[in-house]
Write a structure and sequence with these properties.
Layout (H helix, E strand, L loop, with lengths): L3 E6 L2 E7 L14 E4 L1 E6 L1 E2 L2 E2 L5 H12 L3 E6 L6 H14 L12 E3 L22 H7 L6 E6 L6 H10 L3 E4 L6 H10 L1 E4 L24 H7 L4 E5 L7 H11 L4 E4 L11 E5 L6 E6 L2 E3 L13 H12 L3 H7 L2 H7 L16 E4 L5 E6 L2 E5 L1
Parallel strand pairs: 4-7, 8-9, 9-10, 10-11, 11-12, 12-13
Antiparallel strand pairs: 1-2, 3-17, 5-6, 14-15, 15-16, 17-18, 18-19
């Protein structure tokens, strides 16, 4: 809305209207864009730290780092790790949920690893990949009030029990790092799975979907994600993981209300090129930051991203030509709805939290506001 104004009172939006209001505390953006604060559903770390480090310092540093890139809310995301490391992570999430961290808000955790298919684990450590066992995951679900979403590969034994236990506690469920068939994905929907992690990445591959040379090719996670309207999904729009045509395909089929942008960012955000660990310091997987992305040491595959949400917004818009308001929606309101926090977050509407990012004409972050307070300037 050009020539518009937004009024803020007590940390929330009081009014949105056309024209310029009268007042003593007006802030003129001088032609820059005012957007809702970005929301990242899938983020592991930044500025040298990973959430799986399991310390308050790591949480504060990562939340502050992503705030500089326009992210005002995020769901700290686990990696594959030991049981005790996941419990430590969840204890930190409990302390940080909806607390002032001097960085992005933490509305809840994304319990992502360890319930992956071993062959689809990507850059995650392989030693602690496992199937869900009730005796173990019941301990995780004792932190249900601070778990926003949880991921599982639907083909694993125990996956249905895990999903149903999560849904009983109002935890949203994802499918990810999976070589499930279309039929297994369809079953997962009936259990309560509603979202699929990083479309096109760590999904059923063609070779495993051919039962034999005499049987027809089967569909898998990707085909089910694109087919079922009930499934939302996300893309890593860093310009390294997916080409323009894949971003356009995802957008064309899912649309801006069912497709979110995520960073899937590791600890190498805002750090120099070099060697890093993906996941916890004790037992994490070695990776390398090079050419603007994380890669495995052998150079054969990618290892999550190293950019903030502002980069993803710019990249998606520039590569695809999708209108900027829709791209911003995929980085704000759509993830807010997926996370179930859209009552308070995700758009500039009366009554919602006054979380804003100011972008210049090149879509670079100029300023960030949290609850109406200026918390970062470029």
């Amino acid at each position: 809305m050009p020539n518009a104004h937004v009024e803020v009172h007590d940390g929330r939006v009081r009014a949105v209207g056309a024209g310029y209001p009268f007042g003593t505390q007006n802030i003129d953006l001088q032609g820059d864009y005012l957007a809702p604060g970005f929301i990242d559903l899938h983020v592991h770390g930044g500025a040298g730290h990973d959430f799986m480090d399991g310390t308050e310092e790591a949480f504060r540093v990562v939340c502050t780092a992503h705030l500089r890139h326009g992210t005002t809310s995020l769901t700290p995301t686990t990696t594959v790790a030991r049981h005790d490391q996941h419990l430590t992570f969840l204890e930190c999430c409990r302390r940080f949920k909806n607390r002032d961290s001097r960085g992005a808000r933490v509305p809840g955790a994304h319990f992502y690893g360890p319930y992956f298919a071993l062959e689809a684990r990507g850059c995650h450590p392989g030693d602690t990949v496992r199937a869900p066992v009730e005796e173990e995951f019941r301990q995780y679900l004792e932190f249900a009030e601070c778990i926003n979403r949880a991921t599982v590969a639907p083909e694993l034994p125990g996956a249905e029990t895990f999903v149903r236990a999560c849904r009983e506690r109002s935890i949203g469920c994802n499918a990810g790092h999976s070589h499930a068939t279309f039929e297994q994905m369809e079953a997962a929907l009936s259990w309560g799975v509603t979202h699929v992690d990083h479309l096109f990445c760590a999904m059923s591959d063609r070779a495993r979907l051919r039962q034999s040379q005499t049987y027809p090719m089967r569909g898998g996670v990707m085909e089910a994600t694109l087919f079922f309207d009930a499934l939302t999904t996300e893309v890593i729009a860093d310009g390294k993981h997916l080409t323009r045509e894949l971003l356009l395909l995802a957008y064309k089929i899912k649309g801006p209300d069912r497709l979110a942008l995520v960073t899937d960012c590791n600890r190498a955000l805002d750090m120099p090129d070099g060697e890093y660990l993906f996941g916890p310091k004790d037992g994490g997987e070695p990776i390398v930051k090079r050419d603007g992305v994380g890669i495995m040491p052998d150079g054969e595959s990618l290892a999550s991203s190293v950019v903030g949400m502002d980069h993803c917004v710019r990249t998606f818009h520039q590569l695809t030509g999708v209108p900027l308001p829709e791209v911003v929606r995929m980085a704000s309101l759509t993830p807010a709805r997926i996370a179930g926090v859209d009552k308070d977050l995700g758009s500039i509407e009366t009554g919602k939290c006054a979380d804003f990012v100011v972008l210049d004409r090149e879509l670079r972050v100029r300023a960030v506001y949290l609850a109406g307070q200026l918390v970062h300037t470029a």
